[in-house]
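Quick one:
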Amino acid sequence: MSSRNAGSPPAKTSNKLIGEGERLPSQREIDRRYKNIRSCMEREGLHALIVCGNQYAGFEGATFYVSGFEIVHRYVYVVLPLAGEPTLVFPREARWIGDKSKPWIKDHVWPAVPGNWIRERGQERGWKRVGIYGMDFILAVRDYLELIKSPFELVPFDRQFDMARAVKSDEELAEVRDAMDIIVDGFWELVAAYQPGKTEAEIMAPAVQRFFARGAGPRMMNIMLSGTHGEAEASFKVPGHRVVAADDLLLYSLEVTGAGGYWVEFSRPLICGQVSPRTQAMADVYPHALEEARKLMRAGELASNVHRAVAQSFAKHGFALGHLSGHSIGATMLEYPAIGAKSDVQLEENMIFSLHPQVVDTEGKVCLYTQDTYRIGRTEGECLADVPWKFYNGQESRNTTHELRTIAR
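Output:
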């Protein structure tokens, strides 16, 4: 076994910034999370749960959610037994990476191969069934090869874990709204920077600066769709050194967290020239499709019905969707359930979803795209960004757009 810090109970924390870093939840919120997760573990007959996280954008959130540790490089596991204190398990090469004083879990180990340490821990304690959040996409191969030697059964636990955290508390909703304010703030920096003759990256840069300054840190994924002659190609890319022309359509996909670690997503189209007739035909459907989806984002509705409302709105005009309409979102960028045709999960009030229909032409080459983040309400959904859906040309400002929206109401 590797050496460990002396065990101690979770630190009493409040919802505030810790030094220069992350905002930690209150002890009441931490207890709520563990209670929900352990209730689900008990229903599934688990003796312990391995929560996986790594540096890949959007995959660091589950371990942050259950420990308060911010991954800055490599990966980490949280081992949460059905009863007793959890442990943070770091690979030995990451001993000096990340601030180990911030997490509320104070029991830390640094084995050479974390999977071996977890296997031995399970054998010592007689575990029979162990759940894994992140088995498909996050768990390191070397650790999996050790864990499959275990006498205990390994149980995939992604969906159960995500459902246990899907309904957000008041503390979490405050963090989501803070992240939404940050992303909209960055969007207006993007609009102000937009000008033909600049590169895609130069237009994006002020928004990224704003995101980082307001607490997103490395937790952001800002990609885009773009193209010429008033159309956007259907494949995402990283904003680069391509110089933008007036008739280029730019669809920046903004995805960030705030200091509290909750992801939000947002996008609006930019062009100061002319959109193509094909793009305009897609755009004409968007307001209706988004409103139909919003009205169905209510407690008791099936997620598949929300997707169906969006898909059918565009299908009536000869367009299809490039992928799912959206997904649950929180401390992890992509959470279960999805908003898709086969997602027959009943929505609950205060779930948070990203709705991001990508509309493509019949050949799958040209698209239009948007993103918004919604709260599931009692009778209808709440769009968390008060930014009209339209083509932005760089002349708008946050204040004038808000005034125009108020007059329209």
